Amino acid sequence: MKKIFISLLIFLLIAMSAGFFGYQKLKAFQQETIKAQPDQLLFVERGTTGKKLAELFEQEKLIENAQFLPYLLKLQPEFNKIKAGVYSLNGIETVQELLILLNSGKEAQFNVKFIEGKTFKEWRKNLENAPHLTQTLKDKSDQEIFNLLNIPRLVKNIEEYKNLDGWLYPDTYNYTPNSTDLELLQRAVERLKKALDKAWNERDDNLPLANPHEMLVLASIVEKETGITAERAKVASVFINRLNAKMKLQTDPTVIYGMGENYQGNIRKKDLETPTAYNTYVIDGLPPTPIAMVSESALQAVAHPEKTDFYYFVADGSGGHKFTRNLNEHNKAVQDYLRWYRNQKNGK
């Protein structure tokens, strides 16, 4: 009996030693350094088991031998709630840190920046070059994308004027890998709708604008005319005054937009006289669609224009504009600007 007790005791001691040794091995493995590149991504599929995760770690050369990983996950079940996704390994140094990340579900984030005042043609290049964004629109025309986004338009000839300019909210958009380009654009459309609805519902009384679409068109013109936020409400007042007085808007950005590929960086007298749907030196009122993506400040400027008696403005040479009440004042301001421009050109 005594021999049996001693044998059992020895067995228990051996088992405890083995268990302690194994536990220490797992703790050491938990703190083992992984070999990840700063920009490396780890793709974890749904239903990945401990064994599959160990194989993935070795396959991605994060660790040479991950045989202890399944045992670690059993010993510490708080690490065994792995969530599928794409993870950035930037800043991850140990197995434990990696497991915490994979259990958090915090996938890698990327972003694409869409700038106000630009057109969808320019935005589309950024979209197509966005890293790890699933491209579903490359073979689609602007008109097809317009339909996919289900953008409401208040234009009489909707088939003729299906373009996306003005209908997407400019901002920096974050996304996770495997997001689609269409999903990202849908977010931009929804944000624009909210900003436009807010501006329209809170607009000043008696604006010469029939609907939110016309507000968006005018805001796009204000956006292109000045990049100075503090000046936009005054620029908007000029166009509001002109619309009220039944004057032509006579704004160069609309002419340029209507010229399309024919614009080579310079507007000639001939261009101002050539009829297009967007030539506001020829047409009455607003052009049929927005001419650029619109910032919220431009929308708010149109919703709440300054109360002025200005009908003209011209660049003043300092980045801003000189505002005037009548044609004589405007012509003088133009001459002042031309004089400044010639002096700058001649180095004076």
TrEMBL record:
Pfam families: YceG (PF02618). It comes from Rodentibacter genomosp. 2. Keywords: Cell cycle, Cell division, Cell inner membrane, Cell membrane, Cell wall biogenesis/degradation, Lyase, Membrane, Transmembrane, Transmembrane helix. GO terms for biological process: cell division; cell wall organization; peptidoglycan biosynthetic process. This is Endolytic murein transglycosylase. The record marks E225 as: Important for catalytic activity. InterPro entries: MLTG-like. Belongs to the transglycosylase MltG family. PANTHER family: ENDOLYTIC MUREIN TRANSGLYCOSYLASE (PTHR30518). It catalyses: a peptidoglycan chain = a peptidoglycan chain with N-acetyl-1,6-anhydromuramyl-[peptide] at the reducing end + a peptidoglycan chain with N-acetylglucosamine at the non-reducing end. The keyword Cell membrane applies. One of its GO terms (cellular component) is plasma membrane. The keyword Transcription does not apply. Functions as a peptidoglycan terminase that cleaves nascent peptidoglycan strands endolytically to terminate their elongation. The lineage of its organism: Bacteria, Pseudomonadati, Pseudomonadota, Gammaproteobacteria, Pasteurellales. Its EC number is 4.2.2.29. GO terms for molecular function: lytic endotransglycosylase activity.
